[in-house]
Amino acid sequence: SNIVSVLHEIIKRGIENHLDTDFQHSFENIFRGYHKASRGDLSIKLIKYLEHEFPEINVSREHRLMAIGGIVDCEEYPKAAAECGLSSDDPNVVERQILSSRLSTDPAHFTQKYFRNMMEKGTVTQVAAENLFISLRENGDYDLLEKWTKTLEKEKKLRITVDMYKCLAWCALDKGMVDRGFNHVVQMEKIFPGGVRKTMILSRFLWVFANIFDADKALFVFDELMPQMNTKPSSADFYSLLRACVNADRKTFEAVIERVKRHSDNFLDPKCAGVIIEHYSHRGDVHSMKIAEEYAKNYQEKYPMSHMISGYARIGDIENAERWHDKLKASGFQSEVHEYNSMMMACKVGGQYKKVTFWFDMMIKNGIKPTNTSWNWVSSTVRQMPEVALKYIKLWRNYGSPIYTKVFFNWFLVNPKSPIGLLVRLELIDAISEYSFEERRQLLTEAIVHCRTNTLKLDLERLREQFDQGEKNYNPRERIKSRYSHDGDELPHDRELEGKISDGNQRNSRRTTLDGVEDFPEKLAPSEADSERLQAVLTEILESEEREQ
Question: Which residue pairs from 447-451 have beta carbons closer than 8 angstroms and sit at least 24 positions apart in sequence?
Fold first, then answer.
């Protein structure tokens, strides 16, 4: 309403000052805006308004067609055409109707329906044919595209343009029919010399091969087709080629770098450099990281720096990983979950388990939600630091993270014959109980299949059996205590177990705290008899597990 009121004043002043041509540009842009916003209904209202309020203004045919082109529902075109003073059989109206059918519920049906009507009435146009091909390409109907290509070639009323061949090649490529796509490209260049370069279809091929990391096909396009069809590669093509070959062996990748260098002296833009750094950083050896360091030192973008962190993480070089992490932050970038996961990996591979929990806690503190990979790194430390397991299981439950088999294993493998190990299992079983039957069943089945120790396998099978029987209140305390009793004596009472950590398990005495997360219970002073009994049990179990492993 505001636009119309302002427009009313503009037109009124234009008429009063006899600006018959200049003031029309004022509402022409409004028609274009409504058309781009797919608000043809507002364009039609504007036409009616102008015809009623200012009959001396001649709304052009082009504006009326633009108004119809903004209609989203292709079935509403006949009605819209009548309101705009046009015929529904007008070829220009149908052209726009075909293009609009791309947004319908059944693009292939409506597009072909309108196009057939045009052919029957003899009003078919080249634009309508191109719109038909665009609609079918967007809908992924390669078979229909081929069918209509043969039909048009047979009838010889319309020619197959370079853009229509582009639709054929593009759709074949998206459907995974690479050879057919290549054939269409060769045919396009044969009929329309220079058409391949004009449509940039080979750049599309390189981009697709980059996404599936198909080095052989990308090299074929770059080395064979592009020179053959006089197509000069762009910086985006260099990136696509490097990206397609990023997982290739070092010799192949270095040969690709030399190819790219021959085509451009300034090919190392940040994206290309990032791919090269990614290749060397993923190799996971010191020599490759030295090469990556040479490429990365001149770039301040986040992409290369992030790969440097993950590269040093793979070889457990905590010092250099932290150096690049500091550099990333100093450059004004915020660490995301990928960088934190890389830092945790560096600490895990480097054997500094306490630092793994430090980086995990830092990630939580900065408001970043952990991924399955994050939980995997922090849970893989529990066998070295079992006293933190309870804390992170509770945090894991607070976050509502899905059960991940690898994480589940790491937590379940904490020695069940120690008091803290028993509490870890009980807490984990409570967490599993909150999931659906199907989720529990899938998790436990995966765990049993990949289980390497008979003792753990028996525990998991028993747990799955109890869940299958629907025993929601299943409590394994009695079974665990009876299995791991010593000389007929039971382990201490459950209430005492929940507060005890064996004095003999000194290697697991480190603790980590996290604001807002309830820590595991403090030690209680066990009796002398209980301490001796627990110590004997732990010693026996540790020895038996070492023999079994």
Answer: 447/405, 447/408, 447/409, 447/412, 450/405, 450/409
Digit-coded pLDDT (tens) for 435-449: 788 888 888 888 888
The C-alpha atoms of residue 49 and residue 75 are separated, in whole angstroms, by 24
Cα–Cα distance for residue pair 321/316, rounded to 1 Å: 8
Q: CA 111 to CA 145: how far, in whole Å?
A: 12
CA distance 295 to 289: 10
pLDDT tens across 181-214, in order? Answer: 888 888 888 888 887 777 788 888 888 888 888 8
Buried (b) or exposed (e) across 223-240, using 16+ Cβ within 10 A? eebbeebebebeebbbbb
DSSP state letters, 453-505: -HHHHHHHHHHHHHHHTT-TT--THHHHHHHT-BTTBPPPPHHHHTT---TT-
**Residues 484 and 417 sit within 8 Å (Cβ to Cβ):** yes
Distance CA(142)–CA(169), nearest Å, equals 9
Instruction: Provide the whole-model pTM.
Output: 0.58
Residue 404 vs residues 371, 372, 374, 376, 389: alpha-carbon distances, Å: 10, 7, 11, 8, 15
**Residue 445 near residue 489, CB atoms below 8 Å:** no
Residues β-bridged to residue 489: 486
Q: Are the C-beta atoms of residues 199 and 163 closer than 8 Å to each other?
A: yes
Q: What angle do CA 196, 199, 200 make, to 5 degrees?
A: 80
Packing angle of the helix pair 318-330, 337-349 (nearest 10 deg): 160
